[in-house]
Amino acid sequence: MSKADLQKETVLHYDDFPFDFLTAEDERNIEQWQPAPFMRFANQYLDADTQVAEIGCGPGRATLFMAKRDIPVVAIDVSAGSLLLARRRAPQCQFVRASNLDLPLRDASFAAVVSDGVIHHTPDAWRSFCELARVLIPGGMLYLGVYRRRRYYYYVYTWLGRPIRWLERRGWGNLLIHLTLLPLYYLVHKVKSRGKRTWHGAKNFFYDYIITPQATFHTREEIELWGQRNALELVEYDEHVGNVHAFVFRKSAEAEWK
Length: 258
Ligand SMILES: C[S@@+](CC[C@H](N)C(=O)[O-])C[C@H]1O[C@@H](n2cnc3c(N)ncnc32)[C@H](O)[C@@H]1O
Fold this sequence. Notes:
The chain is of the alpha/beta class. The protein has eleven helices and seven strands. The chain has two domains: 183 residues, Vaccinia Virus protein VP39 (Rossmann fold, 3-Layer(aba) Sandwich); 60 residues, no CATH class.
């Protein structure tokens, strides 16, 4: 499949199944849904004077959190369906529908960039990464969450997920999934969340983790090297944030962008 077709499939996927699982109560307690390294990042580097670009905001889990802290955010996503939900949650932010492969933002224009769980869903994670670095000002900070290569989820998505994705594209296979795997998945989520997870939320998790058309997996060494090539210095690293690992980079103060 060409990169353009893969991107189109990803857009359709997240329009139909935005990564949305927050209940009204979760929205009220949105801090609870921020990963620990992101909370540290926000506490240390973000305030009401920090211009933030959130790239791949999805339905606004982090957007809402930053909006509640009066942090000025420009939130971008390729999926209109996801943006609709995010805008409803954080109407004071600015929203733009665009791809992170070609951001409609000027070079060196944001003091902080946040991109959690996004670049691994694009047809070219390296290019998406370079775009994040491009829009940062010298001395600016990047928070990045990306799927870990050395983790069981890589095998689940790649090997177990392949036949499930094949089934999902067929009417009878889709029905089978809805009658068997999805209820099971929902049940597990319901138990783990002590009854809080909704069907809608569990289904969107399932579609994000198993059915999403593109997921790539990256090692720490690879992402650090990408950082070096973009004048980004790694200042914090967290290996365990569910299926992703989290990186905090600072862009070199001497970096020049033409
Ligand atoms: C797993 S969701 C993560 C959403 C949000 N960052 C969060 O953590 O809740 C992945 C998001 O990436 C977006 N996405 C995928 N490819 C993209 C691209 N090329 N440019 C911008 N956003 C993209 C999807 O539309 C989806 O909303």
